[in-house]
Amino acid sequence: MMLRRGFILFLPRLVGLLVVACCSMSIVYMLACTPKGDNQQLALPRVHSPTAKEAYEAILQEREEQHRNYIISLKKQITQLKAELQGRTEQLKSMQNQYPDSLDIRLDHSKPEKAQANLLAFLRSQVDKAEVHSGVKLSTEYAAVPFESFTLQKVYQLETGLTRHPEEKPVRKDKRDELIEVIELAVGSLNKPDGVSKAKPHLYTASDFVEGIYRTEKNKGTLYELTFKGDAKHQFKKIVLFRPFGPVMKVKNENVNMADTLINVIVPLAKRASKFRQFMQNFREMGIQQDGRIHLTVVYFGKEQMNEVKSILENTSKSANFKNFTFIQLNEEFSRGKGLDVGARFWKGNNVVLFFCDVDIYFTAEFLNSCRLNTQPGKKVFYPVLFSQYNPSIIYGDHDSIPSLEQQLIIKKETGFWRDFGFGMTCQYRSDFINIGGFDLDIKGWGGEDVHLYRKYLHSNLMVIRTPVRGLFHLWHEKQCLDELTPEQYKMCMQSKAMNEASHGQLGMLIFKQEIETHLHRQKLSSKKT
């Protein structure tokens, strides 16, 4: 319809352009045929010259031939313009025949009810075209459109623009107005009586809003998924809205009860006992004490430092009265994919949310809820983009001391970056992981297995939720790229190592440290002389 309307609007312009072109050609012809002034006339032979008459006739004949050729050229151009106009007219007729008024959204003011119905049908068709109710098959990992996440105060975004801020207050008026409108519409929808329940309804306000995610699909619209606090602990209210390049439309309004949703955190490990002790401190505080609906599976490779790791587990179990853990030992070379696959298949209980995790990850209780809310068996898997910490020794090099770990975990461009190239931390139901075929166990060592699994989900009909989250951090550690890695794995490892150290600006300060110190020294000497 839009294409046909474009042709209708363009047709008068084309006719006008043709008229202007013909007039211009006529003016050029008149100017060309007008005799030139005395100063511009061709030099003619003198009349007393014996060949004057013959030369004069030859020049007149030449000028007449030139004018004749010019007229022929103008006629050809006019013929071509007429043919082009005829072709555009035929093309417009063809478009009218090819696209009948199956979805006539022209605003016919004589029939306002029909126009409104057609417009509503078109907008609803936009919802059906977009990835709202189910996922679509994608060709590569780069084809997925990521979500942005937001709270009442801030927006957490991948597309940071020129500011390079991974998180920012929605200071732009258009963005601020958009998110406020969506939250207000969601609150109004939640407070609307359903006409069924006789109990006094819970009156929702913006303060009940927990978090939201949104993304815009070109030619379709913007999808919003908002989560509010429910009536009881561990209960939430989730509302889905869609803006199909027009008014926001409510897609779904549902109660989400996560009180009994267990998360099985699976950690593959080899050695690194000191890192595991740090991980267990985080797990105890966030997973056991604050969340409480969690299971831990540790898949350990080899026997070196194994007793120390088991001792850390047992001490945590006794002190926190925590029994929901599994320890699996494999006598083989470390393989992250193998460890996660074994841990997932070892589970024998009901369908459970699997959180594939590493020992150098820090998570919050809020993230565990995000993990639950963004997974749904047979429909959705969650691929959060975590915030990767820079080397604290570089970041806080000019401080008297390095702050505590909790004080370091802030989302700013000086402290880290969104690890949007990593796909290792993921949440999905065990049934979806088994049905998709699990990990490729032929991949050994570090890297590659996570991308392979991610592509499997993208090629399926499951919806992949890809968004930065504020409660998942990759803690800095010195990365060792072993010689045993394949060339591709080694390259990936070195790229990851380079990005982990510091920002471009901080690395630049280190590289040009000598020049900076020399400049400061010169400035000091100059000030003394004056």
In terms of topology, how is this protein built?
Elements lengths: L1 H32 L18 H47 L13 H18 L18 E3 L4 E2 L10 E2 L4 H18 L18 E9 L3 E9 L5 E9 L5 E9 L5 E7 L3 H19 L2 E8 L4 H15 L4 E6 L5 H11 L6 E4 L4 E3 L1 H9 L6 E10 L2 H4 L9 H4 L7 E3 L7 E4 H7 L12 H10 L4 E12 L12 H14 L3 H8 L1 H17 L1
Parallel strand pairs: 8-9, 8-11, 9-10, 13-16
Antiparallel strand pairs: 1-2, 1-4, 2-3, 4-5, 5-6, 6-7, 11-15, 12-16, 13-14
How would you describe this structure to a colleague?
By secondary structure, this protein is of the alpha+beta class. Among the domains are: 128-190 and 203-257, no CATH class; 263-508, Spore Coat Polysaccharide Biosynthesis Protein SpsA, Chain A (Alpha-Beta Complex). It is 44% helix and 19% strand. The chain contains 15 helices and 16 strands. It has helices at residues 2-33, 52-98, 112-129, 173-190, 273-291, 306-320, 336-346, 365-373, 392-395, 405-408, 430-436, 449-458, 487-500, 504-511, 513-529, and strands at 148-150, 155-156, 167-168, 209-217, 221-229, 235-243, 249-257, 263-269, 294-301, 325-330, 353-356, 361-363, 380-389, 416-418, 426-429, 463-474. It has a seven-stranded antiparallel sheet with strand order 3-2-1-4-5-6-7, covered by helices on one side. Strands 10-9-8-11-15 form a five-stranded mixed sheet, with helices on both faces. Strands 12-16-13-14 form a four-stranded mixed sheet. Strand 5 (221-229) and strand 6 form a beta hairpin. The N and C termini lie far apart (76 Å). Residues 1-5, 35-47 and 98-107 have low confidence and may be disordered. GO terms for molecular function: glucuronosyl-N-acetylgalactosaminyl-proteoglycan 4-beta-N-acetylgalactosaminyltransferase activity; glucuronylgalactosylproteoglycan 4-beta-N-acetylgalactosaminyltransferase activity; metal ion binding. It catalyses: 3-O-(beta-D-GlcA-(1->3)-beta-D-Gal-(1->3)-beta-D-Gal-(1->4)-beta-D-Xyl)-L-seryl-[protein] + UDP-N-acetyl-alpha-D-galactosamine = 3-O-(beta-D-GalNAc-(1->4)-beta-D-GlcA-(1->3)-beta-D-Gal-(1->3)-beta-D-Gal-(1->4)-beta-D-Xyl)-L-seryl-[protein] + UDP + H(+). It is an enzyme of class 2 (transferase). It is a single-pass type II membrane protein. This is Hexosyltransferase.
